[in-house]
Amino acid sequence: MTSFNWPVRVYYEDTDSGGVVYYANYLKFMERARTEWLRSYSIEQNILRDQFGVIFAVSKVQIDYCLPAKFNDELVVTAKVSKKGKASIIFEQAVLRNNAVLATAKIKIACVDANLFKPVPIPKEILDKLER
Q1: Which of 16, 64, 113, 128 is catalytic?
Q2: pLDDT at 1
Q3: Is 128 a catalytic residue?
Q4: Which of 59, 42, 58, 50 is nearest to 114 (CA)?
Q5: Which domains does the chain have, with CATH numbers?
Q6: Kind and range of the H or E element at 7?
Q7: pLDDT in tens, 55-98
Q8: Of 108, 112, 79, which Cα lies nearest the Cα of 93?
Q9: What is the pLDDT of residues 33-56, one digit of tens each?
Q10: How far apart are the first and last CA of the chain?
Q11: In what order do the strands lie in the sheet with 54-65?
């Protein structure tokens, strides 16, 4: 599968007292890229909840920090599906600055019932869209 790229600029609010991106904010950047990846398939998360009664929730994260990002850096966040299961999707993601790898992650997203928060199969209509 091809990699989806999403540009992100580092704002002052993204940095810690040392002037580098706070470690948890890399996960926020990756979340934005996955949301925009869904949008590229015309899938909105509020529609998932309202129409299908499901939400996508992070169930596992493995992240490696390689180099720091700093205030005003222009980054590219990638999202690539490495595996699709019946009720989950595993993404391989990276945060890059001028092709230098700043962080990499493997993130498992579970499809869960929006009310019960228990795993459920990804709706067929959504899987069909993701296959295109």
Answers
A1: 16
A2: 63
A3: no
A4: 50
A5: 4-131 (3.10.129.10)
A6: strand 4-9
A7: 999 999 999 999 999 999 999 999 999 999 999 999 999 999 99
A8: 79
A9: 999 999 999 999 999 999 999 999
A10: 11
A11: 4-9, 74-84, 88-97, 100-113, 54-65
**Residue 14, C-beta contacts closer than 8 angstroms, at least 6 positions apart:** 21, 22, 25, 69, 71
Per-residue pLDDT band at 132 (split at 50, 70, 90): confident
25 contacts 14 by C-beta, under 8 angstroms: yes
For the chain, give the mean pLDDT. 96
